[in-house]
Amino acid sequence: MTETETETATTASARVVRDHDRPLWRRVVLTRESAIVALLILVVIVASATVRGFGQPITLTYLLLDIAPILLIGLPMTLVLITGEIDLSVGSMVGLASVVTGVGVQAGLPFELAALLALLVGVVGGAFNGFLVTVVGLPSLAVTIGTLALFRGLAVGLLGTTAVTAFPQAWTSLAKARIAGTTIPYITVPFLILLVIFAVLLHFTPFGRGVYAIGLSKDAARFSGVDVERTKLILFVLSGLVSALAGVYYTLRFGSARGDNATGLELQVIAAVVLGGVSVFGGRGQLYGVVAAALLIGVLSSALRLANVTSDVINIITGVLLVLSVVTASVLTWLQRARRRPPRTPRAAASTAT
């Protein structure tokens, strides 16, 4: 291990020790994730009091229906970003999975088989991303920008400008239906199941500890016995699979399979994950913060739409939140390092001056 790698591993270890050298209440309350949860509660209270119609039960239903793809894709994206990688192809994979589902139904396949075929396409697409990143050694940013265009091109090429709308009424109704006696749509059930699975995987298994270790220092993780390449490959496959699942839902939610479905969705997912406290440099993040951030973006969008604010302004506000979250995290990190830096002794200062 080189001197630079040793220094990086030492810094990461010191950071972990410092993070757990504080009282439990400070580790739980004084975090970015808790700040996002508090901001979400504040925005909900203000919107309910000032925006007409926001407090209606139907608003919650449509809010959850709208942000369900972001919530779903945000789960694997959190793990991908914690390792220090990124997947920008998720929005295009949603569109491609939607088109594959539509083409399968148009070709006479049962909807269930067409949906399974779309999920298989998601697995293959995620494995392709993972292969280029882990085996070929290409940077994930460049790879997924390329596959973003590739998957979108395949989606548009398969259907052109046409749309497939002949889906079984039972499935399209189920995608928009609410749990009996509540205003909560059924899509929250598979989301909660996946949330539990990913939470256990990330926070309570050796695999999850390896994910954090890779983000802190992939070389130190490798020397600790973590299979870095296999871990990243699995995460990219999961990202493709869940994105395809979101694509099937997106198709049923709007009753239409089009090549331009979910255009730009990847930016909303990245915004939710980063705003939720996941470091863009890897090694840090909690799933509950990402869920809270996705809900915050959904609440803001819903309230602003009810206030007759245009979509362009909503996108600007989302972008500002994302930039502020990144800048704030960097500033706080710099301040913490400056505060923890040991004071210079007179001898060291004289030696430097000499």
UniProtKB/TrEMBL annotation:
InterPro entries cross-referenced by the UniProt entry: ABC_transp_permease (IPR001851)
A matching Pfam family: BPD_transp_2
UniProt GO molecular function: transmembrane transporter activity
Membrane topology designation: Multi-pass membrane protein
Subcellular location: Cell membrane
GO cellular component: plasma membrane
Keywords per UniProt: Cell inner membrane, Cell membrane, Membrane, Transmembrane, Transmembrane helix, Transport
CDD domains for the chain: TM_PBP1_transp_AraH_like
Membrane-spanning intervals of the chain: 35-54, 60-81, 88-109, 115-138, 150-171, 191-212, 233-252, 264-281, 288-307, 313-335
Protein's name according to its UniProt entry: Autoinducer 2 import system permease protein LsrD
